[in-house]
């Protein structure tokens, strides 16, 4: 019985919060667009760009921290400022170039008063997320993003649940709208995420490839004994047969040696053994794409790809280097 009641409780909470998000979506109006514009213009100011200062107290404060982190990771400089600490000197962190985004479901938290007053005194743009448009916060804000009047999921109607879910969703909506307005690409996003799996997946070929000057080369008139010597010295599993103009004529891999093994192999011209049209990729492509090409045929992995830019050889990326970078 207890098990079923727990399940029923979970479903009730999720249904309430899902409805709240649906109501929130339906309530989005020109005020949201105005908030996006205010933040976008702040960070792209022609003289001195500002930052988004996100503030809240209690559970709203926890949500504010999350919103600030999301904004910062998607290209909008943002900081969380605790309203209590703001009253004891941290107001000095906020300049008239900034925009303040303040969260309070009731809009009447006493701890917010000094920060609200500071924004009014120094003409700092104030955006509110609140469910009470006539509250102190809602009344003084330049732009108010009003949360729909929906009950908290807590049966006592006290613990912030539905309201904080809507606040998080509103913050996500602002961050994504700003991201899309600035046209943030995957590659630019990676700048803010150099560590972790996401950063690894967004590495470019140019970051992992062996540059042209470090490639193992032999000339077109070389014989296989010379090619094998270079293969052994460089230990990269591939040697590139170079034309007189410095571009590529073909490649020879460890696999080519096995396929052409014969008593006269060492005396053969490299042009008789090389692969003339090897798989290639550009240096601007994602390293994950190179990994996909090299492993796309089960049981027949490529050990390397030639990197070609504007028709010219610029490097080589190896499967081993992709694996070591954590792209598997």
The CATH level-2 architecture of the largest domain is identified as 3-Layer(aba) Sandwich
Query: What form results from the Cα inertia axes?
Result: elongated
The domain count comes to: 2
Distance between the termini: 45 Å
What proportion of the residues is helical, as a percent range? 40-55%
What do you see in this structure?
With about 325 residues, the chain is α/β, with parallel strands linked by helices. The chain has two domains: about 180 residues, Rossmann fold (3-Layer(aba) Sandwich); about 120 residues, CBS-domain (Roll). Helix content is about 45%, strand content about 15%. It contains 14 helices and twelve strands. A five-stranded parallel sheet has the order 2-1-3-4-5, sandwiched between helices. The protein is elongated. The model has no long low-confidence stretch (mean pLDDT about 85).
Overview in brief:
By secondary structure, the chain is α/β, with parallel strands linked by helices. It has helices spanning 2-27, 30-43, 59-73, 83-86, 113-121, 136-140, 162-182, 186-191, 196-201, 205-208, 224-234, 254-259, 287-294, 319-324, and strands at residues 52-56, 78-80, 99-103, 125-130, 143-146, 210-211, 217-219, 238-242, 248-253, 280-281, 304-309, 312-318.
